[in-house]
Design brief:
single chain, mainly beta, three-stranded antiparallel beta sheet, 6 strands, disordered N terminus
Length: 78
């Protein structure tokens, strides 16, 4: 499982990109987001993310639940 911890939304359209351990975006203590080709886009109170292999994640900022199987990302508001 990959975890997002203490995620903080800044402006709409925040992007957290993952390449090895390189992450960019508006966040505090992102943990274990290490998929080599993943891009997570936080666009507002409702989050949509497209990961590798075309998997799409939908949910609110409290809990982002995977709809396509294999991976779950949980985010908590401060």
């Amino acid at each position: 499982m990959r975890l997002l911890s203490r995620l903080t939304l800044g402006n709409g359209g925040t992007i957290i990109a993952s390449s090895a351990s390189t992450n960019t975006g508006s966040y505090d203590a992102v943990t274990a987001l290490t998929l080599s080709t993943a891009t997570l886009v936080i666009s507002g109170a409702t989050s949509t993310a497209t990961l590798s292999a075309g998997v799409t994640v939908y949910g609110d900022i409290d809990q982002v639940a995977l709809t396509g199987g294999g991976l779950a990302i949980y985010a908590r508001k401060d």
